[in-house]
Amino acid sequence: MSPAIPHDAAAPDRLVVAISSRALFNLEDSHALFERDGLAAYAEFQREREDDPLEPGIAFPLVRKLLALNAHDQPGLPKVEVILLSRNSADSGLRIFNSIERYGLEIVRAAFTNGAPTHPYARPFGAQLFLSANAEDVARALDAGVAAATLLPSKASARASDQLRIAFDGDAVIFGDESERISAEQGLEAFAANERAQAAEPLSGGPFRGVLAAIHAIQSAFPLEDSPIRTALVTARSAPAHKRVILTLRHWGVRLDEALFLGGRDKGPFLEAFGADIFFDDSHHNVESARQHVATGHVPHGVLGRAG
After folding, report:
1. Which of 2-11, 38-47, 159-168, 291-300 has the highest mean pLDDT?
2. How many helices (H) does the chain have, and how many strands (E)?
3. How far apart are CA 151 and CA 298, in angstroms?
4. 40 vs 21, 88, 91, 127, 153, CA distance in Å?
């Protein structure tokens, strides 16, 4: 079991997010060109257009809101840093950095790998979170101990707000997948019986536990009613399985602003109502529902996330 986060533990001094160029900008047309005609054609296409700014991608609003947190003059506020990890070469990637400059994004560190996997650089950069459109890079980053999600083609939230809103699934994302494994292997009745019996025993930490702790550290620098970040747990759990979740978060000493226990209902409409800028879930079924409403990241972890 992962150790509890002590209430008096030192807060993380920064949140570092590594992001791929295809998640930050809309590179789908040029990626299709690469797959069809090869690397040379792709590189020439980017060089010819290197002064033309790229259109924002699915994670662009998230990145813009993350970086805007640094503008707050708040004592004890951890810094947010965004790192670009790209399979472009430095030459073909010049258009990406030109676009970053054009949009005024404070991104100064990057790795261009010229077609090689990018995930090995997430840990040296100190990233707690890696977001990419490349599922292979995401899976390997998770295996290396970095919270990671594959950003799917999604519909952005229709709610316009300066507040950053992040939603998480519980099992196999914030928490470990031991309970989810019981449900998958033995059925819902066995799952419910286990959660009742283990209600006072904290769940283990999942891959996004550290991300939640870093976000909590940022929130803690602001009054509760005036935080620039709002978080939500959106889970298929229902009573009585909710109790263990609540007591686990209390044991860790972290907060989630909203908790939705949906009892198996489709998550998409609830995420739209929350106005999520990003939602993380391990279940293929849940991300298919969610991405019709909000930007969605699939976490290939645990018994459901690794399947299919």
Report:
1. 291-300
2. 13, 10
3. 6
4. 18, 11, 12, 31, 26
Q: pLDDT digits over 151-199, tens only?
A: 998 877 666 788 999 999 999 999 999 888 888 888 888 888 888 888 8
Beta strand pairing call for 296-298 and 147-151: antiparallel
User: What's the DSSP call for residue 13?
Assistant: S
Indicate the helix (H) or strand (E) that contains 244. Answer: helix 242-252
Tokens for 264, please give them. 């198996």
From residue 166, how far is each of 148, 228, 229 by CA, in Å?
A: 14, 11, 8
Three-state secondary-structure class, residue 98:
helix
Task: Tell me the H-state helices in 14-152.
Answer: 21-24, 28-37, 39-48, 60-68, 94-102, 135-143
Domains of the chain (ranges plus CATH)?
A: 14-150 (3.40.50), 164-305 (3.40.50.1000)
Given the residues 137, 169, 281, 282, select the one marked as catalytic: 169
Question: Could you tell me the two tokens for 251?
Answer: 């044991």
**Left if phi > 0, otherwise alpha if psi is -120 to 50, otherwise beta: which for 170?**
alpha
Beta carbons within 10 angstroms of residue 218's beta carbon: 25
d(CA 216, CA 274): 18
Q: Catalytic residue at 13?
A: no
Q: Is 292 exposed, middle or buried (0-12, 13-18, 19+ CB in 10 A)?
A: middle
Instruction: Please enumerate in sequence order all residues whose Cβ is within 8 A of that of 294, keeping only pairs 6 or more positions apart, or say none.
Output: 154, 155, 156, 157, 167, 268, 271, 272, 275, 276, 277, 278, 279
